[in-house]
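Journal club prep — side note

Before the paper discussion, L.F. wants everyone to see what a predicted structure for a comparable chain looks like in token form. Sequence:
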Amino acid sequence: MAQAVYNFLGFSINEIRYINERKSNSYINISIVKDNYNEELSQYTQLIKVASDFSSRESIFIFQTDFKINDEKWFESLDEKMKKSVFFSISFPFIREKLFSITSDTNPGLFMPTLDIRNVDLNKEIKLIRKG
């Protein structure tokens, strides 16, 4: 049986600055603030920042996602944009669910839509704006 080119090791919440003033948010900003490959451990890490305006001050959530790279030749064949996209797309559903879970106690919850990020430049921030 062939081994997968990578394994998702999981995600953690590194920081939460959640200010809840019972206000619906009008924007969500998502960005990869840092990514790193540790050759010694064969581990790729992304730090993902999600910011939203639940109050007069911005709420910020920082997630760390980790992947074990089993096929370094495959990993090295990816350009930087593709690396960010592939690994972010694996993590995003977990982050979506966790954000909703954290914020839905007293608010309608931070609901982020499903995103197709195949053509999104993750070197820049993704900005989602609520209309209406």
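L.F.'s comment for the group: The beta strands are 6-17, 27-38, 43-52, 59-69, 126-129. Keep this in mind when we get to the figures.
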